[in-house]
Amino acid sequence: MSWNFSASPWYLLLFAGMALGCAGFLYWHRRSRVDFPLGVRWVLFALRFLTVFGLLCLLLSPVWRRQRPEREPPLCLLAIDASASMRGVWGDSAARAEALAAVADELPSAAGRQAESRWYAFGTHTRRLWPADGRGQKPDAAASGGLAEAVACADVYTDFSEALSSVSRLFESRNGAVVLLSDGRNNHGVELSAVAGALAAPVFGICVGDTAVCDDWYIARWEQNAYAYRGSDFPVKVYVGYRSAASEAATVGEDAVSASVLAAARPVLEIRQGARLLCREAVDAVVLTDGLDVYLPAVDTGFQLYDMRLLVAQADCHAENNRRTFGIQVLQEKTVVRLLTSETHPDVGAIRRALAGDGRHELTVHPFEPTLPDSLSADLWVLYGCPTAADGRRPSTMQALQRLVREKPVWFIWTPQTSPEAFNRLQTGLNMPLQPVFAETGAAYRPAFRYFGLETSAMVGGLPPLYAPLGLSAGAGAVLLYQRLGPLETTSPLWWFNLQGGRRVGVLAGQGLWRWRLWERTETGDARLTDALIRRSVRLLSLKEDAGRLQVQAEPCYSSGQAVAMQARLYDPSGWTVRDADVQAELRDSGGQVYRLAFVPAGDGYQLSAGFLPAGPYTYAVSAVYGDRTERRQGFFRVGEASVERTDLPADWDGMRRIAARYGGEAYHWDGRDRGRLRAIARQIGRQLADHPAMQPQTRLRTESRPLNQSVGWMLGLLILMGAEYALRRRYRAV
């Protein structure tokens, strides 16, 4: 038992001195020497010292700490595979409940009364089944029924690495063992051979199911991009596999399939979008080894679904794995930007690198010609240093520029070569002095700019100055950046837009964007602010009015054991995300029942979790309200049976054996039919656990703490000291 203070021990010396001073002052002055005999004075001195010292020590909140031994029983953990492939092992639900009850009843009894028993289910995720409150040693009938109810074999895949990682934390500070009951199929996470050996407990396995393999053609996997652009072809790589009953496996990249097997099966891969056939390719030995590369057209925008089907001439034992569905988000075509310039400058390279960074723009640089070619089309024209004085003297060139400004989105970037007179004749809404004075000017961000925001706007003031003309005036439009001369912020625009009257004109009245990118990379390691200014300006000027500002992503099919989740993104008129909108969803099933839910902000978008829904088809309608605008989207999805892990998969006992051997246990096999054999296996594992060193109870020292200011004994002791002092003083008539 120890006495612990959280404060410095120097406080004890201070309190002892204060207590000595108080006791000495009371009992060693002249009157005390007359009233009390010497022996009584020493007693009173000691009582007063202890009382004052004890009261002062309570200010430090002292704590009594006591350690006592405690016996901790070992943990016997039963982890049961709850994935869809286990349905084929157990058969119907009654047989599954009987088999699970057999293991759950026999194992704890055989392991010994000293062991604590717990049940877990694993698959998509690991969860505790019994006991829910951490107490209880012998499961009753209700608990067994609850186990059968909870382990419905509805998980869509099996992840052994996640299961072992979850239970490993239980054995960091206590003894015990794990019993795995599974068919060994592991189709998510890392391979069983690569599962980390961090579990400090032996693992015993009960291998169930049938390892027999039949002849089976199947679509193994495919690779695709997440997005494609409308009007282009996107690649899809499909891998086809073949599993032979004779050779156990002839999958992708392994043993070659014989020519006779290919000739008899004549496999053909088809890809359709609805009723439209997009691809039909025969599968040969090269395809089995290297995969099949196909290119599919992206015709319509939005989330598009495609069906893959593997057609085989001969009978196939598992036809359901011959069909797969995948989806891809088809976006509008890339924004075509054409930059016209009569000079070579690093700013052109800065704009090129900024637009190439997100893959949504296609930039082409052209020399500025006296006559603009009518054959070139673009979503945005960037005029760098144009028009010059020479262009202003050509009537044909000025007429072409005036028509360009009237009909097309244009972004002007001023340089010392830009002619003020020629530019003012274009009537963009921004006027330039006829004899401008160029100077190094900084930038000041205007927070009231309404077309898009900047997450890093605080960095604008630190950007290097641009070489810009002074004395600009704007009659209309919106200012993004003002000119700043040293610490003085002016009202002259530096970066300006005019989007009124159907026009889309932007002006950057300065040269030196390359300095901004270089400064940002030196300070932060990237050019996020400069690139955002360029990209968002391009998107704002080149934006085409459409109804695609609200994008909703949902899986085309959710399994019955999978929670329904959806994501949404909302874009403002400049094409950048809006994060403060009110986004609502209305789900409707085939029976007309309506589920009204709300999206919550998540990152750059919004997320909705609808939980587990009954099986069947659903339609959804999503609306987003921001400002005075409302965007809507509709779609369809289905909730059905799990398609990732099937009931007809063969068992993989080798993986279970490797896990048991790695963790110092042993694997047992059960054919899935004889319930007596299953009980015998459970009893045999229990007897091994009873004699295993890892199942020995542990004795630990448990520390108990109690604050002394809450201790009745401490307060009672102080009262006794004060009472004894009072009694002695009264005895000698000092009170």
Summarize the structure in words.
The chain has 18 helices and 37 strands. The chain is flat and about 125 Å long. The chain is an alpha/beta fold and 735 residues long. The strands form eight sheets. A nine-stranded mixed β-sheet has the order 17-16-18-19-26-25-24-21-22, covered by helices on one side.
Short description:
This protein has 735 residues and is an alpha/beta fold.
Q: Could you outline the blueprint of secondary structure elements for this entry?
A:
Elements: E1 2-4, H1 10-27, H2 30-35, H3 38-57, E2 63-72, E3 75-81, H4 87-90, H5 93-111, E4 116-122, E5 127-130, H6 141-150, H7 160-168, E6 176-182, E7 203-207, E8 216-224, E9 227-229, E10 233-243, H8 259-265, E11 268-273, E12 276-282, H9 285-290, E13 292-297, E14 302-311, E15 323-331, E16 335-341, H10 346-356, E17 361-367, E18 380-384, H11 389-392, H12 395-407, E19 410-413, H13 420-425, E20 430-431, E21 438-445, E22 466-469, E23 473-474, E24 478-485, E25 488-498, E26 505-508, H14 513-524, H15 528-542, E27 550-554, E28 557-559, E29 564-570, E30 582-589, E31 594-598, E32 600-602, E33 605-611, E34 616-626, E35 629-640, H16 653-662, E36 667-669, H17 675-690, E37 698-707, H18 712-731
Parallel strand pairs: 3-4, 3-6, 6-7, 7-36, 9-15, 16-17, 16-18, 18-19, 19-26, 28-35
Antiparallel strand pairs: 1-2, 2-37, 4-5, 8-10, 10-13, 11-12, 11-14, 14-15, 20-23, 21-22, 21-24, 24-25, 25-26, 27-29, 29-33, 30-31, 30-34, 32-33, 34-35
